[in-house]
Amino acid sequence: MIAASGLLSFKLGKRRARSQLENNEPLRSMPIYHGLYVSLWTILPPIFLLILFLIFKNNILDYLITPFISASTISMGLDEVIYVKNSLMNNISNLNNLIDSDFLSKEMAYSLYGKYSLGRLVIFGSLVILSIIFSFLTFKKLSVRFDARRRVESIFKFIFFLFSTMAVLTTVGIILSLIFETIRFFSHVGFFEFIFGTHWSPQTSIREDQVGSSGSFGAIPLFTGTLLITAVAMSIAAPLGLYSAIFLSQYAKPRTRDWLKPILEILAGIPTVVYGFFAALTVGPFVRSCGEYLGLTVATESALAAGAVMGVMIIPYVSSLSDDVMSAVPVSLRDGSLALGATKAETVKKVIFPAALPGIVSALLLAISRAIGETMIVVMAAGLAANLTANPLSAVTTVTVQIVTLLVGDQEFDSAKTLAAFALGLMLFAITLVLNIFAMIIVRRYRERYE
Questions:
Q1: 402 and 264 together in one domain
Q2: Which region, left, alpha or beta, applies to residue 280 given φ > 0 means left and ψ of -120 to 50 means alpha?
Q3: Which end of the chain is more exposed for a tag (fewer CB within 10 A), N or C?
Q4: What values do phi and psi take at 200, rounded to 5?
Q5: Beta bridge partner(s), residue 217
Q6: C-alpha of 185 from chain center
Q7: How many CA atoms lie within 13 A of 16 on its CB side?
Q8: If pLDDT is split at 50, 70 and 90, which confidence band does 446 have?
Q9: Taking the model in full, what pTM does it have?
Q10: Domain containing 438 — which CATH number?
Q11: Whether residues 262 and 354 fall in one domain
């Protein structure tokens, strides 16, 4: 209904502006802006009201349901009363389910459904009335000298500001939630024990009288495993990705580039679980066989196998972005270098690469972030063992894998075991932030500026 009313008001506003043009009256704004102005004011207020209804939906349903809860729930506990309310909320839109409910009589079910239907009608009527009112008011404002373009741009500017603010507030909310839960975790486990501990075993006893481990939360093995697998992945993705980008942007013919680049980017569209199967069933056994042939001890699930497959997966992140950045370097710089007698390789090394350095560093950072955040490949190819080692032939695990493991299933967010996931997430966020700052320093130091 909202979309239809917006389209109709757009047509009417645009038609009125065109009718004024037919009368040879000069418009201050084009007809399309008149239509957009009326359409936006017809759509936005009902959408805002609808969002408010959705936000307070549970409160409204609770207000409707509370008088109809049977008197027998007085003897129930709080959890049982909440269960009854949730059951009625989930079935309030279905009359048959309300009639069959164990908590309402048939008459009460009909009465509750009637009030619910009336409420939906009131909401729908409110949206219609609001849309008509604003459409009528804005339609009356249209005139020959009305600056519709400036008004439309102001509305879009406010919308963009609102969405950007929501993105920032979402980030702030995520950070604050991580900090709050991490503080709770450090009330159970010492800060230095977590940061500098070398043993990770988060299993804790559930009850005081239960025999079980008190838990060990040394995070060093997790971060070591994360950095080890990331280093293996980037040792494959960085050179292959950069050399592929240099070939595609500087040496390949347009026809070759047109079919080679999409084929390379297909690697980014393969599901990670497929990479995990490939690593576990093909690459892992192959690495172990090669190690045995050379007399080396290789784990069935090794960091080398997981990192190698992960490196292949993130090659498109490096190659595609670096290719776009190097292709965007002004042609005049390349032609000037070649005109001065430099070879193509010298031009790439001394001119194009320094000019494209910020974008290349961004591509590498994106690839590193993708490698750090990968979970499925590590679970299937590197295992869950938290080993403190720098040997890529050993089994290791990563921070993201342990976060998933800690939060799988029904968990109580009061134990150190579950809260450890938030501490790991915050530390991972801090490490990523440090990497970004370090990359910005490198870019500012070595970037070449051209007028």
A1: yes
A2: alpha
A3: C
A4: -115, 110
A5: 200
A6: 25
A7: 20
A8: low
A9: 0.71
A10: 1.10.3720.10
A11: yes
